[in-house]
Write a structure and sequence with these properties.
By secondary structure, the protein is mostly beta strands. It is built from 2 helices and 24 strands. InterPro entries: 6-blade_b-propeller_TolB-like (IPR011042), Glc/Sorbosone_DH (IPR012938), Quinoprot_gluc/sorb_DH_b-prop (IPR011041).
């Protein structure tokens, strides 16, 4: 009887330990409590946030304004306003990225919408940072179709110094499958705007196609991940592969209907790693691997607009699949547009509510 009682107590002990596991933990590391701090407010529809080599936060606002924000003093310093930006619906000044060797090559790359002969378009422009302003605009690519909705517009530079650009279908869904259109694609450029000789199609900027509206883009080692808006269903996270078709508009999410399965088989379609139905409105992506927040290590951090939360997506060791997900800051601060990681492992995200938008810092409780 004594041994039976000890056995039952042991089972009860381990059952309690399992049931008390923190719900926001998807790692074996001991989680830390998190706190959020507003770094800046009074912004109007910011779209991009970058932690710069100068330890400043670089941000864009859709109206055309580029600013730097000191995360310590919380001072906002306007840097430059692009005069020909036309903010219309979801369009305006959107993505931005800094040259990886910024101290030697102080280039700032931006993508924005404008009018060309009264037709709404999109272009990528490289500026030079000098004396606290931007000079010498150099158009790298222009006349990309744009629309009131679905403009994509996340920029990213790879370790081999290629510029990646996401474009939306500009509400012309069929264009995502058309190789003579730059809509609904991931594009790959040399940093001077020329077409890389090793792109999948000779003489074309197109790197992958069949995208509806990708607004998040991040490299994890040599793997490229993108977040993509679905219609009313099937928001996606995709692992982007060179020259591959991602299905839109013929496929929504996985190839799980007979019609979709036939199209996928005939067109070598890549299925998403994960999808959400109903949609959460997937936006910015960052990769987190710092020890500061141990439960977030080896995870994608996804900002969402409609769902108004940050979703942690834990990657497997090979970084080829998503093992689990957890939600943070749901319904706090409203819609969340973009996210970045600071040099010490703290995380910054920006809101997209239309007025009094904020930059919020996340770090462990002191």
């Amino acid at each position: 009887m004594k041994h039976l009682i000890l056995f039952l107590l042991t089972i009860a002990f381990f059952s309690c330990k399992k049931s008390n596991k923190p719900t926001d933990t998807v790692d074996n590391n001991t989680p830390v409590a998190l706190q959020s701090t507003v770094i800046a407010s009074g912004l109007v529809l910011p779209w991009e946030i970058i932690y710069g080599p100068d330890d400043q936060l670089w941000i864009t606002e859709k109206s055309g304004k580029i600013s730097r924000v000191n995360p310590v003093t919380k001072q906002i310093s306007p840097l430059f306003t692009i005069s020909d930006v036309v903010s219309q619906g979801e369009g305006g000044l959107l993505g931005m990225v800094l040259h990886p060797d910024f101290n030697v090559s102080p280039y700032v790359y931006v993508v924005y919408n404008y009018n060309a002969n009264n037709v709404y378009r999109e272009k990528v422009v490289r500026y030079t940072y000098s004396n606290n302003t931007l000079i010498n605009p150099n158009i790298l690519i222009q006349n990309i179709p744009a629309g009131t909705y679905h403009n994509g517009s996340r920029l990213l530079i790879s370790s081999d110094k290629k510029l990646f650009v996401t474009t939306g279908d500009a509400t012309n869904a069929a264009s995502a499958q058309q190789m003579n259109s730059l809509s609904g694609k991931v594009l790959r450029l040399n940093l001077d705007g020329t077409i890389p000789s090793d792109n999948p199609v000779t003489g074309s900027y197109i790197y992958s196609f069949g995208h509806r509206n990708s607004q998040g883009l991040v490299f994890v080692d040599d793997k490229l991940f993108a977040s993509e808006h679905g219609p009313s269903n099937d928001d996606e996270i995709n692992l982007i592969q060179k020259g591959r078709n991602y299905g839109w508009p013929n496929v929504e999410g996985f190839c799980n209907t007979s019609t979709e399965a036939s199209f996928c088989a005939a067109n070598n379609v890549v299925e998403p790693l994960i999808n959400w139905s109903p949609t959460v409105a997937t936006a910015g992506l960052a990769y987190y691997n710092s020890n500061l927040i141990p439960q977030w290590k080896n995870s994608l951090l996804l900002t969402t607009l409609k769902a108004s939360k940050i979703i942690q997506l834990k990657l497997n060791d090979n970084k080829t699949s998503i093992e689990s997900q957890a939600d943070f800051f749901a319904n706090e601060f409203g819609r969340k547009r973009a996210i970045c990681v600071g040099k010490d492992g703290e995380v910054y995200f920006i809101t997209s509510n239309g007025s009094d938008d904020k930059i919020v810092m996340v770090r462990p409780v002191n």
